[in-house]
Design brief:
about 50 residues, mainly alpha, 2 helices, about 70% helix
């Protein structure tokens, strides 16, 4: 089994994807998920700013 290069970053991204799917559920078009992933990602970045 190969080692994950960016383990922490990968974990955070997968967490965002699960959050979006949990909030929206299924049945939406791809653009809806894409926009929500962007918003979630950037809001988490802002939370971590000093």
């Amino acid at each position: 089994m190969s080692e994950v290069l960016y383990k922490e970053e990968s974990f955070q991204i997968i967490g965002i994807l699960f959050d979006v799917h949990r909030n929206l559920g299924g049945g939406f078009s791809e653009i809806i998920y894409e926009d929500n992933i962007d918003l979630t990602y950037y809001s988490k970045l802002l939370e971590n700013q000093p």
